[in-house]
Amino acid sequence: MNKKAGETAPLPGEGETGSRYTVDDLNIKVQQAHEVLLDLERRREEIERQKRQLEELRKKQRDFEVGHRAVTEELTRSIALLERHQEEWERELEDIRSVRKTLAGQLSALEALEPASWEPANLGEELTKALALIDQSRAALRQAQGRINRLGWDGAVREGGAPRGEEAAAEVEQESGFWQKVASGFAYSLPLILSLLALSLFWFWMFKK
């Protein structure tokens, strides 16, 4: 069919398909494509977020497993060590209590001595008992010395961490005080002893006549 004058030929690409889309249609298509891209971007971001969450959860799970195992093992070892030391210290404490009770008994017995109250007639017997008690206390100290040394203490029993020189001076002073009491008791009883001796000599002289 021949074209009439004045008619223009259709542009390339125009035909039935090209003629069915208008500018508005194209704008709608572009808008739809843009929305699809935005939706895909949101999905990608959501996937990335979930990926980060999963990675964080996996890291926390690994940290939990490693930390749980390590701390559990360390706690088990520590508790076993403490229980072992607790048993040793309880035995040591019981030993200390026993030694302390023994030494306290010896100290009480020594402090209970009152030389001034001894009867002159029984002075020798009282001195023998007192010396035996001192020897017994020294033996108890020697027996306890090994236990005391295990506690890290040097020398004999110290009260309040007193230096050895001060302790020795205190011991000498205590012994001096003891014998001073003995001498004092004897001095108090000396007039009575002399009187009895004089009376005995007088009766002996009278009966001899």
Features:
mainly alpha; 79% helix
Describe the model:
The chain has 209 residues and is an all-alpha fold. It is built from four helices and no strands. The protein has helices at residues 16-19, 23-111, 123-150, 164-208. Helix 2 packs antiparallel against helix 3.
Shape: rod-shaped
Name the structural class: mainly alpha
The fraction of residues assigned to DSSP E strands is under 5%
Task: Spell out the helices and strands N to C.
Answer: HHHH
Low-confidence stretches: 1-18, 159-166
Biggest sheet layout: none
Q: Terminal Cα separation, in Å? A: 200 Å
Number of strands: 0
Total DSSP helices: 4
The averaged pLDDT comes out at: 76
Integer-rounded radius of gyration: 55 Å
Secondary structure: helix percent: over 70%
Give the topology.
Layout: H1 16-19, H2 23-111, H3 123-150, H4 164-208
Helix pairs in contact: 2-3
Sum this structure up briefly.
The protein is mainly α and 209 residues long. The chain has four helices and no strands. The protein starts with 15 loop residues before the first helix and ends with a helix.
